[in-house]
């Protein structure tokens, strides 16, 4: 049998220093990698490997087939949980007149390349078509949206206008990026509107001649609706509220596919709230807050605001705790819980416990990006309703008691999606602290690795400073650990013959 005491007696303090130092280095590298992986993907790498690769080998795999959970939190078992989808922000700002001015003031980029790339794809889809082949000005605009440098994009638009003064996409790009005020943007868009209307009427007469002419007409329709919407947004920003509301109402009656992407009814709701036309806003909300239509933070939180408006001015948490909630107050609180369940990131921005930034051009529903886009424009509407923020402050956290496991089961909506954090980090600038729900705790492996790294580093330091006492301590600890093995060895030798191993080797 192997005699460990002879081996231990030959070890020197330098060996213990090298051993603990090497262990500390390795565990430190593992800790750094685990922390980076957790920050990027929201989970532990070791845990993922254990669950996905090691656990199936030892029979610990899940019995699910990977096609999704049967429970969707809304009572139906046959539907799949929807995946995260990026939507265009209905209230997106102008790059030149708003985003660029923010960059000049702070030297911080308000938009990410991922967000701008999505916008470039949208513009290529809306404002170009297969009928543009052979037209130099439209071919220039096809590539202009993809340029990263804004000056290159602006120069390309001017080049397209030199070839054809009726190139609508070029005017759109200049209104979005070259103008530095809303008044200038409105002026360029009005010029573009005249040209877009003429192009629309021209292509409308020829749309049935071929598929090429049909695609050109679709392109001209998209450009016309987009310009009208941006003009209405300019009117809203310039406080021409009645004019903006009328333009938004007219646009909501249109039916082209682009209307499903722009969500103009959210612009109309925000404009009516600014006018404090709450009855009209309720009428619009009743049309779009339907069980068959997709929800948004604007829909859910506007419904909560209108219900809170009826009771918020007289609401007192002390009185409510004594006598209980009235029917109207209960309705308002349930609406707040519904809204918070849909997007739990909004209340912190509304209550101003988390700082706002400029919203991105694209949002992820139920994510931090949607919360920013909503609160950026709707915070004043909540402040205009006396007591609404106080009611929200007193009741919104009660939602989480109703949803102890939001990633597994919801109450009124699907379980909260797990992909929002990664998508929001791509959409939002690096200087913004992305809101995460539910707040992830540090995985066990990161805590274990951090403890191991700290412990071995401490051992290495003590061994370097006090080599003799630490060597003696290590020798004593190893002797204690080896005692059970010595005991087992003695019991084995008392039962088995001494020459058993020799006889087995001969056999």
UniProtKB/TrEMBL annotation:
<dbReference type="InterPro" id="IPR011990">
    <property type="entry name" value="TPR-like_helical_dom_sf"/>
</dbReference>
<feature type="transmembrane region" description="Helical">
    <location>
        <begin position="15"/>
        <end position="38"/>
    </location>
</feature>
<keyword id="KW-1133">Transmembrane helix</keyword>
<keyword id="KW-0812">Transmembrane</keyword>
<feature type="compositionally biased region" description="Low complexity">
    <location>
        <begin position="64"/>
        <end position="78"/>
    </location>
</feature>
<dbReference type="GO" id="GO:0016020">
    <property type="term" value="C:membrane"/>
</dbReference>
<feature type="region of interest" description="Disordered">
    <location>
        <begin position="62"/>
        <end position="82"/>
    </location>
</feature>
<feature type="transmembrane region" description="Helical">
    <location>
        <begin position="444"/>
        <end position="464"/>
    </location>
</feature>
<dbReference type="Pfam" id="PF04184">
    <property type="entry name" value="ST7"/>
</dbReference>
<protein>
    <recommendedName>
        <fullName>Protein ST7 homolog</fullName>
    </recommendedName>
</protein>
<keyword id="KW-0472">Membrane</keyword>
<dbReference type="InterPro" id="IPR007311">
    <property type="entry name" value="ST7"/>
</dbReference>
<comment type="similarity">
    <text>Belongs to the ST7 family.</text>
</comment>
């Amino acid at each position: 049998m192997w005699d460990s005491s002879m081996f231990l007696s030959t070890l020197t303090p330098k060996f213990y220093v090298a051993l603990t130092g090497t262990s500390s280095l390795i565990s430190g590298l593992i800790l750094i990698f685990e922390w980076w992986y957790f920050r990027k993907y929201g989970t532990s790498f070791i845990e993922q490997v254990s669950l996905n690769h090691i656990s199936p080998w030892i029979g610990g795999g899940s019995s699910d087939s990977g096609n999704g959970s049967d429970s969707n939190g809304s009572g139906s078992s046959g539907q799949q949980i929807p995946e995260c989808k990026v939507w265009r922000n209905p209230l997106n700002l102008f790059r030149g007149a708003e985003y660029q001015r923010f960059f000049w003031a702070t030297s911080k980029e308000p938009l990410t390349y991922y967000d701008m790339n999505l916008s470039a794809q949208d513009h290529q889809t809306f404002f170009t078509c297969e009928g543009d082949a052979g037209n130099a000005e439209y071919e220039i605009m096809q590539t202009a949206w993809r340029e990263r440098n804004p000056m290159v994009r602006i120069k390309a638009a001017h080049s397209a206008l030199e070839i054809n003064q009726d190139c609508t996409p070029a005017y759109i790009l200049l209104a979005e990026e070259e103008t530095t005020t809303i008044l200038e943007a409105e002026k360029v868009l009005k010029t573009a509107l005249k040209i877009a209307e003429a192009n629309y009427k021209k292509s409308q007469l020829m749309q049935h001649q071929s598929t090429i002419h049909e695609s050109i007409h679709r392109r001209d329709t998209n450009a016309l609706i987009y310009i009208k919407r941006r003009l209405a947004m300019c009117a809203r920003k310039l406080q021409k509220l009645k004019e903006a509301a009328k333009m938004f109402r007219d646009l909501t009656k249109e039916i082209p596919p682009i209307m499903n992407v722009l969500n103009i009814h959210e612009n109309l709701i925000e404009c009516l709230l600014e006018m404090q036309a709450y009855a009209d806003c309720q009428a619009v909300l009743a049309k779009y807050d339907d069980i068959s239509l997709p929800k948004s933070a604007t829909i859910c939180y506007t419904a909560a605001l209108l219900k809170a408006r009826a009771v918020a001015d007289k609401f007192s948490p002390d009185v409510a705790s004594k006598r209980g909630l009235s029917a109207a107050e209960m309705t308002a609180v349930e609406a707040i819980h519904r809204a918070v369940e849909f997007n739990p990131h909004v209340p912190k921005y509304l209550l101003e416990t988390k700082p706002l930034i400029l919203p991105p051009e694209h949002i992820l529903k139920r994510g931090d990006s949607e919360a920013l886009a909503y609160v950026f424009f709707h915070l004043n509407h909540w402040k205009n309703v006396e007591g609404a923020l106080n009611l929200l402050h007193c009741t919104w956290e009660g939602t989480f008691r109703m949803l102890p496991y939001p990633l597994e089961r919801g109450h009124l909506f699907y379980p909260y999606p797990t992909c929002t954090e990664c998508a929001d980090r791509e959409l939002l600038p690096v200087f913004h602290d992305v809101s995460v729900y539910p707040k992830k705790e540090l995985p066990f492996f990161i805590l274990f690795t951090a403890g191991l790294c700290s412990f071995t580093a401490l051992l290495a330091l003590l061994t370097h400073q006090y080599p003799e006492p630490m060597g003696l301590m290590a020798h004593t600890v190893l002797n204690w650990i080896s005692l059970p093995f010595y005991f087992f060895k003695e019991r084995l030798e008392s039962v088995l013959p001494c020459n058993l191993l020799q006889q087995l080797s001969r056999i």
